[in-house]
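pasting for the record
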Amino acid sequence: LGFDERVFPAMAGGEDAEFGYATRDHGLAVHWLGEARPVIHALPETIEQVTERFMRYGLSGARLYQRCGRWAESVPSAVDWYRDLSCNASTDYRRFREIVSPDAQLAFATYECILTAVWLAGYLRELGRTLGHEIVAIDGQRLDAGWQEISLSVGDALTKQHPDVWQALQTDVRRWREPPRATEERIPTDQIAANLRRHAPLVGLPLPPEVDSYLSHWVDDFERRSVEDCAKVSDIWTTMRTSTELTIEKLERHARAAGLPL
């Protein structure tokens, strides 16, 4: 029992998830130590370094699925999801309504959209490579330049308003109850979509039947799990909405008890 360095070389990403799966396969338990002091990963946080990292995470997700047979790591709707992102038709991203500062909310929601896009790009590129059919063609330098431009557009306003961003980052989970804020209309999803179309477009469509079948193999299981998870989230919210103590820690406890990943 050890890290699989053939499929997941050091720093490629995914080796910890694969090790966790292997641990369970050997009959050992993986425990959540909720009271333990968390490990802080001192990783670079420039936009080009973060997007490169998430591209690798997508690649490792594809390897967990394809090479290790971990169906839970697959994304059956990946091509459709990526197409929606490229056409500015996706609404499936987090709004960060709990963040008090509108500028910080805008920045975090924008980065969430970007990271979802690059994760999917890495995932589809790696699956295309292993299946022998290119799905997405990525011009890495131009794609990175586009993310840098978008990052500056939302980051400048944030840092000018809050020079010490992390000190000023206040949250209030009661904002989840409120209707959408005007900030959400400013999220540059159109620019994100344009960057994908220009520098990481889908190719080779329509997919050959065998590739399409492989990519959508687990769709029924995902639909079932999605319905189950939504029901769990609804139950948690019903429990918490009457509470006077709305905190991230309390939400985490309820989610962990229900078996929901955070």
